[in-house]
Amino acid sequence: MSISSPDASSGDPYGRFNPLGLAQTSENLRSALEAQPQVALTGLQPFTGAGLYALYYRGNLPIYQDLSETLVPLYVGKAEAGNSSYGDSPSERKPKLYKRIEKHRTSISEASNLSVEDFDVRYILLDDVWIVLGERALLRAYSPVLWNTLLTGFGSNPPGEARTNPRSFWDTLHPGRPRAANYLCNRLLTRNEIEVRIKEGIAVSLMTPGVDRDHALAQLRERRYQAIWSLPPKANKDKRPIVYRPDAFIEENAAFGVSAESETWRAAHTTSAVAESDVEHFDDEDDQNSDE
Fold it and tell me: What is the pLDDT of residues 149-161, one digit of tens each?
């Protein structure tokens, strides 16, 4: 099953067709990507070049079951040929895109409840000038893309070894990566709350594009949650984490085998309601949208 095409004339008060508009670019890139062969992630062979890619789930994990027979990806990403920060000329001889996908294959293989055999990939080689625009266009075409927006952390770089690093949404739902082994639990949501959020996101993914879908997506983005814990302000001499939901904090850390002795954290005197959009943006704030 494929999602419907975006409206190419959207945004023009006269309904004129804009061949270079974002909506039409999104449709062109989505169509081109879906025309590429869908390859088993385990069977992907090395290749050179840069471009865009999408990962699809074909396994039996119940939470993703509704997506397994669709063309809706779990994750989309990019790999550029050049270093745009320095203006270097791009090199098409390097396997930039392949290495990016290979990195994801490793993350999936390390997760305790995922199997690389259950994933497919599509990719398309592009000139650098189209890659950044193309990634945004694909995110908009398939929005919300679960592992880019709702379950962030999959493509991010390791943030360091500090124990007070929060476990990402992805590492909470798919534990096993060594880099997150000693991290504290997610600072905003429990595992059960993350699963509810994912189910709601999948329901939005499968809606027909239009006003109702936009409204449902906006509601999901604007939802507020009570934080589990946070780090103290930098000026605070007591550097222990501030815990707003002690029961959830203790239970979640115990589930990952992370000790949370009472002397290593302090309970807050007041609760803290944190806006989801302020903590984990739909534009990969946790992922930093870099995958570098």
Answer: 999 999 987 665 5
The β-bridge relationship of strands 75-79 and 51-57 is: antiparallel
Instruction: For residue 27, give Cα distances in angstroms to 8, 21, 126, 134, 203.
Output: 8, 10, 16, 10, 21
3-class SS of residue 63: helix
User: Using an 8 Å Cβ cutoff, are 285 and 259 in contact?
Assistant: no
114 vs 162, higher pLDDT? 114
User: Helix or strand or coil: residue 224?
Assistant: strand
Residue 154 CA to residue 275 CA, distance in Å, equals: 22
Give the residue among 151, 167, 177 at the shortest CA–CA distance from 252. 167
Letter string b/e over residues 122-153, b meaning 16 or more CB atoms within 10 A of that residue's CB? bbbbbebebbeebbbbbbebbbbbbbbbbbbb
Instruction: Give the C-alpha separation, 156 to 168, whole Å.
Output: 9
Asked if residues 58 and 119 have their Cβ atoms less than 8 Å apart, the reply is yes
Q: Provide the 3-class DSSP secondary structure of residue 182.
A: coil
Provide the residue type at 205 as one letter. Answer: S
pLDDT tens-digit profile of 110-149? 999 999 999 999 999 998 888 888 898 888 888 899 999 9
Share of the chain above pLDDT 70, in %: 82
Three-state secondary structure call for residue 101: helix
Beta bridge pairs of residue 128? none
DSSP-derived letter for residue 42 is: G
**Scanning the structure block, which residue is given the tokens 């992922």?**
287
**DSSP strands (E only) in the chain:** 39-40, 51-57, 75-79, 119-125, 224-226, 229-230, 242-243, 266-267, 273-275
Confidence band of 281 (pLDDT split at 50, 70, 90): very low
